[in-house]
Amino acid sequence: MNVLGLTGGPHTLLDDYRTVPHLDGYWHDAAAALIVDGVLRSAHEEERHTRVKNTSVFPANSVAACMSDAGIAADGLDAVAVYFTEAYWRRYLNLVRHYVPDFAFLDPRALIRQRLREVLGDEVCAPLHFVDHHLCHGYSALAYSGYQDCLVLTLDGAGDEEAGRLVRVRDRRQETLHTVSLDNSLGGLYLHVTKHLGYGQFDEYKVMGLASYGDPNQLADDLGMVRLKEAGRFEVEWSFVDKLESVLPARRRHEPITQDHADLAACVQRALEGAVLHLLQWHCAEDGSDRLCFAGGVAHNSTLNGVIEASGLVRSLFVPPGAHDGGCSIGAATATYLRAHPRSRSTRMASAYLGTAIPKATADELVPKSLHRFLSLVDLTTLDNPVASLAARLAAGEVIGVARGRAEFGPRALGNRSILADPRQAAMRDRINSMIKSREGYRPFAPVVAAEDASRYFVLNGAVEDYSFMSSRVTVRNEFRHALAAVTHVDGSARLQTVSRDQNPWLWRLLHAFKRHSGLPILLNTSLNVSAEPIVDSVEDALLCLLTSGLSGLVLGELAVTPTRQFAVEDFEWVPMPGVRLLAQWAPAQAKAAWALEKTGPRRFTSAISGEVASLLLQHLEPMPFDDGVAAEIEQLWRTRYVRPVM
């Protein structure tokens, strides 16, 4: 049985529905997943293909990629599973029709089939199933945990009129023990504070990192964000919003981070942890369950997961690599498959490498002709022993990108689309944060360690059977904190990834090769991208990231790629990135048009541009000499991913 699972909305990157209020709150993290005869064969996130972070569009590229991975045509599908209920979809389409009268679709089934036909070039006749949002989250964890009897907790901002659910699974039967109403959304609470701190939706992980620098006691008594009640229940005290503005005014984006901001981050982090532990403490004791599956956006809070593990409330915890809404594509497909095959057993997910493949190949085979103009900027070498060479370069202080094998599914880079570096010096963390990732200096980097050596360097929690998905924080042992300065957070913690020989043989060998140089089977691991773009997916993405990020080099498949000269904007033609619109508004005071570029998607950003740059983008001119001002402006727009070079 072949089941295609979908997340994301009904629109395309070309649709413009800015007149619809709150449109972007309905969808995000578009993705597709394919189950073939009970096996999860492929899963792609649409943002990796469109290069629009957290994109909300219909996952057309991801559908095409999944079908191609498995060699399946439209008539090979037995079912299509879509996250959210059909009622939710109908409400949304009616909202769009209200503000956009010529919008053609009110029937979600017809619209989804139309989108699939556009992608696959043929009619999809397979039955279409709509799956409840939190059921999708739940199955994305339960079916891949290896647990037969357990508790399943899902928590996020909102989905199908709920913000969370706790379910008992026993003897293949499921019983809902608790639901979290929208008024008590812990994801909503965390997002509100995230915005108050000057960040936006999907920046909650920044607040989690900032929390380690703060003292929650400085604000907790004044704010009282969550009230704990009997029987594991809790209530979000939204009255804290009024208090918050008087205690600490909202920070504007790009204003300095102060200690008060860190204290507020610590306050909301502790409120989240307290509510979740309160809920689990009651139900674990009442139910007797000691295994927990955890999914939903809140489950990517690795600090919270570490607190759950250390609490002793559960003996075993599983968080899938795609706990966010993108993972609902896996959950929807899985729930639909299991409905038809109810005797199937849960098995532990062995790998998150489910996406686009970059194979072992020669330069001519791997780099398409459309990218050959980049070859004048780099040196490509086929190495006899790439692992040994890379280990030596890392030990010498180089920062190297890796793009090889199948891409990871989920927000964590796990070695196939990673930036790797020496973990021993704190200066390395600062260098990558400022020069390469262009992100806040307080944010930590993760260590990746050979699984068999992990307990020597880190205090592992017994509730986690393995740390291969980088979903939990652990404590770095005191005697190694100085030696692991680049990956040890200010509170002595680390978001750990372990790698076994079976999970990723290439990375495991690299760790042991690095150990021969440094004495440590550990590397700094962060995602291969700059802050303004999603994780690298393709050969093209990897080369562009190398040329504009300050990396020392790149492993591309089995090739070593080294920049030979500086990337110059004058060498290329430039166009807006996918999902970026060129806007013009008449400015009476200047008696001319004021130009800007606007990023669409779940979050909208706008950057004012000069008339000269607007003219270049409008006319799509051949490469030409730019004056210094225009060149600098184009370069900044590229680094922030408003424009891209024409291939």
UniProtKB/TrEMBL annotation:
Q: Which domain of life is it from?
A: Bacteria
Residues in Carbamoyltransferase domain copies: 25-333
Alphabetized InterPro entries for the sequence: ATPase_NBD, Carbam_trans_C, Carbam_trans_C_sf, Carbtransf_dom, NodU/CmcH_Carbamoyltrnsfr
Xref: Pfam families: Carbam_trans_C, Carbam_trans_N
List each copy of the Carbamoyltransferase C-terminal domain by range.
391-561
- Would the keyword Cell wall biogenesis/degradation turn up in this protein's UniProt record? no
Keyword check for Manganese, yes or no.
no
What does the record give under GO molecular function? Answer: transferase activity
Q: Which UniProt keywords apply?
A: Transferase
Similarity annotation? Belongs to the NodU/CmcH family.
This protein's name: Beta-1,4-N-acetylglucosamine oligosaccharide 3-O-carbamoyltransferase NolO
Native source organism of the sequence = Asanoa ferruginea
